[in-house]
Amino acid sequence: MAGGKLTPRQKMINLMYLVFIAMLALNMSKEVLSAFGILNIKIEDSNSITDIRNESSFQQLAQKASDQPLQYGDKKAKVDKIRAVAKEFNDYIETIKASITKEFPKDKAGNYPCEQMDKSDAVDNLFYTGDKESAKGKEFLQKIQSFAGQIKAIGGSSIAESEMKKIEKRFETKPVYSEKAEANLSWLDYNYHHFPLIASVTKLTQLQADIKATESDVMEGMFKSDLVAAASLTAYQPIVVPEKTAFFQGEAVKGKIILGKFDPNLVAKSVVVNGVSVPAKAGQADFSFGAGAVGEHEITGSFNFDENGKVVSLPIKGNYVVVPQPKSANISADKMNVVYRGLPNPMTISFAGISDDKVTASAPGLTRATGNGKYNLNPGSGTEVTVGVTAKLPDGKGVSDKKVFRIKNIPAPAGAIAGTVGIVKGAKSRLEVSQVSAELQDFLYDLKFQVTRFTFKVTGQAAIIVNGDRVNAQCKTALSKVGRGDQVTIFDIKTKIVGVTAAIVPKDAAPVIYEIQ
What pTM, to 2 d.p., does this model score? Predict the structure, then answer.
């Protein structure tokens, strides 16, 4: 397009061509900017997934530390500190991102206006003063450079050397050779100087991804040795599981010996229990022998496997207790040795050593509740109730027992103003808006009373009967005539119990006195 004299028409064609090229370049630039935006979103999505995975791993570790503090407690403590350092660094980067993008807020879908974020001013002004690194730029570099060292200091020998080198490489900030500049540039120059804003934001998001990946790698790396150990047969623990915790004299002691890490494809070469060989099954062995005399007895033996041409023996160690056959039932009221009329008094009824399905209890007002041996006793008239229990022993014989409980009525509550019983002091205005209630203090059950009627009496004036639980207009008129030191008595307080289906009429609540201040 150069050389020679050009006609006006040719000049116009050349100008249009230049404009066309510029438009192509502009469109390409927008595509690149949009690509950075798409990449940033994908990294953010990946970071969210990593966060969920890391949290799940940490919760599993926390559970292990709770179950086995000696084995996992120290590792959890280290991971706690590493997570705190990682969060601090991640939050610091998030603060930088918020600062440099404050003029470019995300839309409702969470996307940046990428095509508008083509300038580098926001990042350059933050990390540089002229062509030199600013205090903020140096701080940013220091945060990156110190992160791997903090991880190493906390993790110590719990992090493998090869894993630590990978982390250090991830956060390396040494100078980088630039082919464009044909020279080594500082890490900050190479990565953030004169770059479009959306590109810098994406790089910061990637740095956050590196932090989260480091968290994940540390937790995974710390437990590689545990996984290797778990793959060995030495990690299996034989566990004695009797059919029940105690046996009667004359019974056969039955149960299973299973491996702590059960594998249905794992069959022992042999199993010995108390000196006798028993059949080996998939990951377990059944046993049966006489219970013996009353008292505690040991179960010993071994699971024997072939591993790498050698026999690996895993010791069996357990115990059981032989108890005499029961002669009486265990019957107890969960609240005390008294039951209250009109209330579902919770009770636990059982025979020692006999399963709940072979125990039967009966009494007027006794019903089954949720759970083994759980009942509710709602007594009716009278002063006593007898609970009878029968059970069937393992040999088919039956046993029975009974127990008598006293029946008491629910005691009367005490009247209260704004939740306070006895003598209450306050202004007339407070009494006008306060609720009259009834409180049952120091009672085993948490009962709620609703006041339905009371009598309101001001000294020197006629008594006023009020329906409900608050003073009415007539009461307020009477109050207008009292002065400081005068007393108002609220008595004949009628109530009903809330939440109890039985038709119980409680005794009148004790009076409450309100002294005007």
Answer: 0.44
Q: Look at the alpha carbons of 233, 239, 240, 241 in this order and tell me if their dihedral is positive or negative.
A: negative
The mean pLDDT values, 10 residues at a time, for the chain of 517 residues are 52 50 48 85 90 89 76 85 94 94 89 89 92 92 94 88 90 87 87 90 92 89 59 62 68 76 60 81 75 75 68 77 65 73 86 81 92 90 91 82 89 89 90 90 84 92 92 91 90 88 80 91
DSSP per residue, 478-514: HHTT--TT-EEEEEEEEEEEET--S---PPPBBPEEE
Per DSSP, which regions of 100-196 are E strands?
A: 128-129, 132-133, 176-178, 183-185
| CA–CA dist 484, 118 (Å, integer) | 78
How wide is the angle at C-alpha 222 spanned by C-alphas 220 and 227, nearest 5°? Answer: 75
CA dist 260 and 332 (Å) reads 37
Q: CA 287, CA 243: separation in Å to the nearest integer?
A: 11
For tokens 């009292």, what's the residue? 482
3-state secondary structure 349-407: EECCCCCHHHEEEECCCEEECCCCCEEEECCCCCCEEEEEEEEECCCCCEEEEEEEEEE
Q: What separation in angstroms does the CA of 209 have from each of 15, 162, 193, 203, 215?
A: 47, 20, 21, 10, 10
Beta carbons of 273 and 301 less than 8 angstroms apart: yes
